[in-house]
Design a protein that fits this description.
- This protein is an alpha/beta fold and about 260 residues long.
- The chain has a single domain, classed as Alpha/Beta hydrolase fold, catalytic domain (Rossmann fold, 3-Layer(aba) Sandwich).
- The protein has eleven helices and six strands.
- It is globular and about 45 Å long.
- The N terminus and C terminus are likely disordered.
């Protein structure tokens, strides 16, 4: 179990082992669709983590396509800078892919990408059928920590990444005033999701980046043997995604509808 005093070297060693996860994924039957429910053609947008792009998520994109889904790239060349600008860039691509239709879409966000995905789901409400947070903190974690509204024990690497995130924001978007701003992103991460949106949070047992206190608890939560980066290559994560994306929330929603309650 990770500890808040694990140093940067320990994190880098653990994260370097993600290469082992890649090899394990390519040799695991799940990567070839064995015992994975077929997809329904749904659009699935995948958002990268801090300083990441769509490149390192390519195995996940390929797998989703082979399973029968339509993966959507974030179009972010680097997930850094103003959160609202990053969110808007992803939203534009989602709207382009939807082409004006109101068909449901699923969102998968890794780390910082999960926070962006939550804000998009909060904005789109029932149009987002599934939301997956891979190694992502609670939606308002960054704002709360940077504004010092809450005290969460942070490891050295987590502090380094937070400082790097703030530095990149100053360099890339000098007019950004997060977390004191009241932009649309800040408003949306504080909004609840639609009851029609199924939520899954997956965390790595060897993740030394996201503090325990910042994990989502009000959701279906799974812990797998993986590091922070290794989550996107873990065979166990792919199994969970196959099951989750094929699940239908309509039965549960019918129980929550006014007509059902009246009956």
């Amino acid at each position: 179990m990770k500890k808040p005093d694990d140093g940067p070297l320990a994190v880098m060693i653990r994260e370097a082992m993600a290469l082992i996860d890649v090899g394990a994924l390519f040799t695991d039957p799940v990567f070839y669709g064995v015992h994975v429910p077929p997809g329904d053609g749904k659009l699935v947008a995948i958002l990268p983590g801090l300083f990441g792009s769509d490149s390192y998520l390519q195995p996940l994109h390929n797998w989703l396509r082979c399973m029968g889904y339509n993966p959507v790239r974030s179009t972010l060349t680097m997930n850094a800078g103003c959160m609202d600008d990053s969110r808007e860039a992803v939203q534009l691509e989602i709207d382009r892919q939807l082409g004006g239709s109101r068909r449901p879409i699923a969102l998968i966000g890794h780390s910082r990408g999960g926070t962006l995905a939550w804000s998009i789901a909060a904005r789109m409400q029932e149009r987002v059928s599934h939301l997956v947070m891979l190694g992502s903190p609670v939606p308002d974690y960054l704002r709360a920590v940077e504004s010092k509204e809450v005290k969460i024990p942070l490891g050295p690497m987590t502090r380094i990444l937070l400082h790097a995130s703030k530095f990149s924001r100053r360099m890339l978007d000098p007019n950004c005033r997060f977390p004191s701003c009241e932009c649309a992103f800040v408003t949306d991460i504080e909004r609840p999701l639609s009851p029609a949106t199924s939520l899954l949070a997956i965390y790595g047992r060897d993740d030394l980046v996201v503090p325990e206190a910042a994990r989502l608890t009000a959701a279906e939560t799974i812990e797998v043997p993986a590091s922070h980066v290794g989550l996107v290559y873990s065979p166990e994560v792919f199994r969970a995604l196959g099951r989750f994306l094929a699940s239908d929330n309509s039965a549960r929603q019918s129980l929550l509808s006014p007509s059902a309650a009246a009956g």
